[in-house]
């Protein structure tokens, strides 16, 4: 009972520990003075951080996806204090890295040819940035009655991407382009439909029914569909080709007397072992996990 309570305090402080078994968590805690001990378990705690880059002085400077993509952390950090303390800092740095990189890439997409731009940024950023640029381009085209011109520019851009695929690329770059082209082809088809339907209002259902990405106040990414708006989660996804939108319905959740503050980037799932007969025993077996809520969008 005492050990279970101890592990629970660690999980409450860093909810991603709920994804680990008691044995795995104990393995980490028993080597608390060795930050590298978390490496084998990162993939279970994060969507696609396969490992962290530790310098000789143990400073954490980068994260690697399971596909081998490397992204520099912003900011760098040292694993100081309890393991759950500095893993919270890793999570914060991960989200800040994704957020700031999205902003930088959107500035860059305005001045760099698309065929160069797609090879300069991480895969997740390329997909998000392209979708954000497409949303902006379509709405500007509707407002200025130049949507057909924007559609022609999209066709030229797709021709350029196809040319890149035929060339010599590293494995990670080819993965990025493969995911991007699928999404851009869908965007092309949607844009073509808007042109044929002669859409002249950004509130037209043919447009608002699409998944749209907005960089708001040069700081925050919002995902909209019809009249719903979702905050982007900033979870590092690597080259999975997926986009993530997250939404919270409640501010707080009370479970067995514990007041749990809900974050917009989390969903709460309560699971019960159906084999348990005794209601009292069942309640003791209930587990709470905070799972990253995300949609897979193509």
TrEMBL record:
<dbReference type="GO" id="GO:0000166">
    <property type="term" value="F:nucleotide binding"/>
</dbReference>
<keyword id="KW-0175">Coiled coil</keyword>
<keyword id="KW-0206">Cytoskeleton</keyword>
<dbReference type="InterPro" id="IPR042228">
    <property type="entry name" value="Dynein_linker_3"/>
</dbReference>
<keyword id="KW-0547">Nucleotide-binding</keyword>
<dbReference type="Pfam" id="PF08393">
    <property type="entry name" value="DHC_N2"/>
</dbReference>
<dbReference type="GO" id="GO:0051959">
    <property type="term" value="F:dynein light intermediate chain binding"/>
</dbReference>
<dbReference type="GO" id="GO:0042995">
    <property type="term" value="C:cell projection"/>
</dbReference>
<dbReference type="GO" id="GO:0030286">
    <property type="term" value="C:dynein complex"/>
</dbReference>
<feature type="domain" description="Dynein heavy chain linker">
    <location>
        <begin position="1"/>
        <end position="103"/>
    </location>
</feature>
<dbReference type="GO" id="GO:0007018">
    <property type="term" value="P:microtubule-based movement"/>
</dbReference>
<dbReference type="InterPro" id="IPR026983">
    <property type="entry name" value="DHC"/>
</dbReference>
<keyword id="KW-0966">Cell projection</keyword>
<keyword id="KW-0963">Cytoplasm</keyword>
<protein>
    <recommendedName>
        <fullName>Dynein heavy chain linker domain-containing protein</fullName>
    </recommendedName>
</protein>
<dbReference type="GO" id="GO:0045505">
    <property type="term" value="F:dynein intermediate chain binding"/>
</dbReference>
<keyword id="KW-0243">Dynein</keyword>
<dbReference type="InterPro" id="IPR013602">
    <property type="entry name" value="Dynein_heavy_linker"/>
</dbReference>
């Amino acid at each position: 009972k005492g050990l279970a309570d101890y592990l629970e305090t660690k999980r409450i402080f860093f909810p991603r520990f709920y994804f680990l078994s008691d044995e795995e968590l104990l393995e980490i805690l028993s080597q608390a003075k060795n930050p590298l001990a978390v490496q084998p378990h990162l993939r279970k705690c994060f969507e696609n951080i396969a490992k962290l880059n530790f310098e000789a002085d143990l400073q954490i400077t980068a994260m690697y996806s399971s596909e081998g993509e490397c992204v520099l952390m912003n900011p760098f950090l040292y694993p100081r204090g309890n393991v759950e303390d500095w893993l919270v800092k890793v999570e914060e740095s991960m989200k800040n890295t994704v957020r700031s990189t999205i902003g930088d890439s959107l500035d860059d997409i305005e001045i760099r040819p698309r065929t160069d731009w797609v090879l300069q940024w991480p895969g997740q950023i390329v997909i998000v940035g392209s979708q954000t640029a497409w949303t902006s381009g379509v709405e500007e085209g509707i407002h200025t009655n130049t949507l057909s011109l924007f559609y022609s520019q999209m066709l030229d851009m797709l021709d350029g991407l196809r040319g890149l695929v035929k060339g010599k690329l590293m494995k990670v770059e080819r993965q990025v382009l493969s995911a991007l082209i699928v999404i851009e082809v869908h965007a092309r088809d949607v844009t073509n439909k808007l042109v044929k339907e002669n859409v002249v209002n950004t509130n037209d259902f043919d447009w608002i029914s699409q998944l749209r990405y907005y960089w708001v106040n040069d700081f925050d990414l919002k995902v909209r569909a019809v009249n719903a708006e979702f905050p982007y989660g900033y979870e590092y996804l690597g080259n999975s080709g997926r986009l993530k939108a997250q939404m919270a319905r409640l501010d707080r959740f009370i479970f067995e007397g514990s007041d749990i503050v809900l974050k917009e980037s989390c969903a709460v799932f309560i699971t019960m072992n159906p084999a348990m007969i005794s209601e009292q025993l069942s309640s003791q077996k209930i587990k709470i996990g905070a799972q990253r809520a995300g949609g897979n969008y193509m």
